[in-house]
């Protein structure tokens, strides 16, 4: 593995793992044949501020990994800690975005972005007392992703790419320490997707939070992440890890360079082997 600090970005050089998963398993339902063993013998460490991507065959447990780290579904065995805290219930320090932006249609863009603040303690109480700082924060985030002027519109009045930008703002409004992204750009056309790569990379470079990105798109993983993990077929575990030693900020042209293509080919070979179970 390579460890070029310039390429690794804000999280580079920080040793203590922010996320630590040790020999974890996650079993849905009963632990007999009626259930489903999604993850087994799972080990993973993510440094604070690191941008990590996870790729692997369909159904190998990538989304389950998100649930494991966020505490939405508890592990069946092993250890999972985030910032040294045992994950046994849903964490408040997590922001999440999915392939489907799932904006509430009766709420405006601004109200959608503010939703986590209105739901999650302790922000809820502070919000009731004084909305202004939160509204200012939401507007600043919308400006950051190029959506100034859309605050009073509804999600269904926006394009898919714009909705996904709103979803990113909603995931970030409570200033989470870790952002979990489950194929957030999977439903978008190629040009919009690449625009959002830039938006996400800029947000990460500026704010330095930890990101775990699940994606089927290998160029997306290589463009965005500093480290990519490949999972085995179900039950998933990490079978291959590579550091992406490309300088930041990465430009769209980078995807045509031989080194970029080499990373993608290497990952494709490992995912292909994982699919075949070899
Ligand atoms: N709530 C659930 N109850 C039972 N089994 C589940 C549940 N959620 C996921 N599974 C099973 O766990 C396994 C891993 O699912 P998961 O969604 O984590 O995979 P994935 O890698 O994200 O899939 P994909 O790449 O297709 O999105 C699959 O076999 C799936 O059917």
From TrEMBL:
<feature type="domain" description="ABC transporter">
    <location>
        <begin position="19"/>
        <end position="258"/>
    </location>
</feature>
<dbReference type="InterPro" id="IPR027417">
    <property type="entry name" value="P-loop_NTPase"/>
</dbReference>
<dbReference type="GO" id="GO:0005524">
    <property type="term" value="F:ATP binding"/>
</dbReference>
<dbReference type="InterPro" id="IPR050166">
    <property type="entry name" value="ABC_transporter_ATP-bind"/>
</dbReference>
<comment type="function">
    <text>Involved in beta-(1--&gt;2)glucan export. Transmembrane domains (TMD) form a pore in the inner membrane and the ATP-binding domain (NBD) is responsible for energy generation.</text>
</comment>
<keyword id="KW-0813">Transport</keyword>
<dbReference type="Pfam" id="PF00005">
    <property type="entry name" value="ABC_tran"/>
</dbReference>
<dbReference type="GO" id="GO:0016887">
    <property type="term" value="F:ATP hydrolysis activity"/>
</dbReference>
<keyword id="KW-0547">Nucleotide-binding</keyword>
<comment type="similarity">
    <text>Belongs to the ABC transporter superfamily.</text>
</comment>
<dbReference type="InterPro" id="IPR003439">
    <property type="entry name" value="ABC_transporter-like_ATP-bd"/>
</dbReference>
<keyword id="KW-0067">ATP-binding</keyword>
<protein>
    <submittedName>
        <fullName>NitT/TauT family transport system ATP-binding protein</fullName>
    </submittedName>
</protein>
<dbReference type="InterPro" id="IPR003593">
    <property type="entry name" value="AAA+_ATPase"/>
</dbReference>
<dbReference type="InterPro" id="IPR017871">
    <property type="entry name" value="ABC_transporter-like_CS"/>
</dbReference>
